[in-house]
């Protein structure tokens, strides 16, 4: 009994010591940091650090200003708000804010071998991927033609709904996945192909593995990753995706022609061969697998959800939809699909697509950044390694940058002559050295697919279904995933 009492007292002493140590460290660090909610020793500010916490940031911004600090356990996380602050960090101080914190879950998935890693490898992979995309045809006809082929297949699939209510999310996913499938593996599959359906399913499960509640707990408490059965559960969908990708890689190895690379995998295999005598090379089978997995996660579900949101929202504004369709007809007629070269002559269509994306606000916060060195920033001393959250919603709805931020207003992207104007505050894809890697691919896909669909169909909401312009991301995503829509063929495009 005395031994048990002694053990209990010892545990209480240890916990008290940990509590006081955490409190002292937090208070010491907080002296130089932006203000914020008071952290709980050992736990930090758990209600402000989960994946769904962004909806609480406007209140914190109003209370503490455009920079405030929340806490991940005993580590500070500085949240940046508003266009001026986010631009100052990600663009004016791009190098200092270009790091990523050590992310036990993500790093364990990618083994440190992809373009989002927290080590120095990301720069080399990012540079290689951007160069390879240009070699494949980004910004040129080959990739545009592949996207136009996808638009034709999507139009045929939507036509089969005959104007009746349907949920387009799976068809849009097929179009997006098929396009990236062509970029990575050189394939174009029929939407009913079982291989394409499995490809979509496994990629979604992989994304869910990274974003679900269990994973978020593991981000906060990495020690849980040492539990074997838990790691197996978290990896289940990812391992199936890896098997699918490995099949493609093995086929490419057998059919590789060094003089005529077909796609991303071929270019990567040639890079591996080029560096096979370099023992320190980071280009290997593992990094090929991890970069493909990363590209799939980054470039698929978010784009298909963006496409569906564009259709759902424009259906709520029939006058705007009609004006877009008139512009498309004036530029392209009904005999050919809109192309990227048409974009300068379709300023209103381009403006509407940008405004739709601004309102979707698909990523309210950017992935964690980390400081690569100590920095004096806007009156605060931020130490190397400090985690940074750019709050992108606050940029996309910043009243100093948008005339009517809460309204759906394509005029935000038009000048006084009705010509399209770029807006630096349009940070849908983040900004700086960690800007979304597939930004140019996504822009091409979204413009071609949306304008092609609006050329051929008029979209209308199912009776009673309406999306509020400003609602939480969870409400918005539930609406996007579950809602139906009607696509009525336009009479001028029945030929």
Automatic annotation (TrEMBL):
**One Pfam family this chain carries?**
p450
**Molecular function (GO) terms listed?**
arachidonate epoxygenase activity; heme binding; iron ion binding; oxidoreductase activity, acting on paired donors, with incorporation or reduction of molecular oxygen, reduced flavin or flavoprotein as one donor, and incorporation of one atom of oxygen
Q: Does the keyword Metal-binding apply?
A: yes
A single GO cellular-component term from the record reads: cytoplasm
Q: Which example biological process does GO assign this protein?
A: xenobiotic metabolic process
What InterPro entries does UniProt report for this protein, alphabetically? Cyt_P450, Cyt_P450_CS, Cyt_P450_E_grp-I, Cyt_P450_sf, Cytochrome_P450_fam2
What is the protein's given name?
Uncharacterized protein
Q: What organism does the record attribute this protein to?
A: Xenopus laevis (African clawed frog)
Q: From which lineage does this chain's organism come?
A: Eukaryota, Metazoa, Chordata, Craniata, Vertebrata
Q: Which gene encodes it?
A: XB5761350.L
């Amino acid at each position: 009994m005395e031994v048990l009492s002694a053990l209990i007292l010892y545990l209480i002493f240890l916990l008290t010591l940990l509590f006081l140590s955490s409190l002292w460290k937090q208070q010491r660090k907080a002296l130089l940091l932006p203000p914020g909610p008071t952290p709980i020793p050992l736990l930090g500010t758990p209600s402000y650090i989960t994946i769904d916490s962004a909806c609480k940031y406007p209140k914190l911004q109003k209370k503490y200003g455009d920079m405030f600090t929340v806490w991940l356990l005993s580590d500070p996380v500085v949240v940046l708000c508003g266009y001026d602050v986010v631009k100052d960090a990600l663009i004016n101080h791009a190098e200092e804010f270009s790091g990523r914190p050590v992310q036990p879950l993500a790093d364990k998935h990618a083994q440190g071998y992809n373009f989002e890693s927290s080590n120095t490898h990301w720069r080399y992979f990012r540079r290689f991927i951007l160069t390879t995309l240009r070699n494949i045809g980004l910004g040129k006809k080959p990739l545009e033609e592949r996207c136009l082929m996808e638009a034709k297949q999507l139009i045929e699939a939507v036509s089969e709904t005959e104007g009746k209510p349907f949920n387009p999310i799976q068809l849009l996913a097929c179009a997006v996945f098929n396009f990236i499938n062509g970029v990575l593996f050189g394939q174009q599959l029929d939407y009913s192909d079982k291989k394409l359906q499995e490809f979509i399913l496994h990629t979604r499960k992989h994304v869910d593995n990274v974003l679900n509640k269990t994973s978020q707990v593991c981000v906060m408490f990495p020690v849980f990753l040492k539990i074997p059965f838990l790691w197996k559960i978290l990896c289940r969908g990812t391992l199936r995706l890896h098997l699918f990708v490995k099949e493609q890689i093995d086929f490419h190895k057998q059919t590789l022609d060094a003089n005529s690379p077909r796609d991303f995998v071929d270019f990567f295999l040639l890079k591996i061969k080029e560096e096979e005598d370099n023992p320190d090379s980071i280009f290997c089978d593992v990094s090929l697998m991890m970069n493909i997995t990363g590209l799939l996660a980054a470039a698929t579900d978010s784009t298909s959800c963006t496409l569906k949101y564009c259709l759902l929202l424009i259906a709520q504004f029939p006058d705007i939809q009609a004006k877009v369709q008139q512009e498309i007809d004036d530029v392209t007629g009904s005999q050919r699909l809109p192309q990227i070269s048409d974009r300068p002559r379709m300023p209103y269509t381009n403006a509407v697509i940008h405004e739709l994306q601004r309102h979707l606000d698909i990523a309210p916060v950017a992935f964690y950044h980390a400081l690569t060195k100590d920095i004096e920033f806007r009156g605060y001393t931020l130490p190397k390694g400090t985690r940074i959250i750019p709050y992108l919603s606050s940029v996309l709805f910043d009243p100093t940058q948008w005339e009517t931020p809460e309204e759906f207003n394509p005029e935000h992207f038009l000048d006084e002559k009705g010509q399209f104007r770029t807006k630096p505050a349009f940070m849908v894809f983040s900004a700086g050295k960690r800007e979304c890697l597939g930004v140019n691919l996504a822009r091409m896909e979204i413009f071609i697919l949306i304008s092609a669909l609006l050329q051929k169909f008029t979209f209308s909401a199912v009776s009673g279904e309406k999306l509020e312009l400003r609602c939480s991301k969870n409400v918005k995503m539930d609406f996007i995933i579950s809602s139906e829509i009607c696509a009525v063929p336009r009479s001028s495009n029945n030929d």
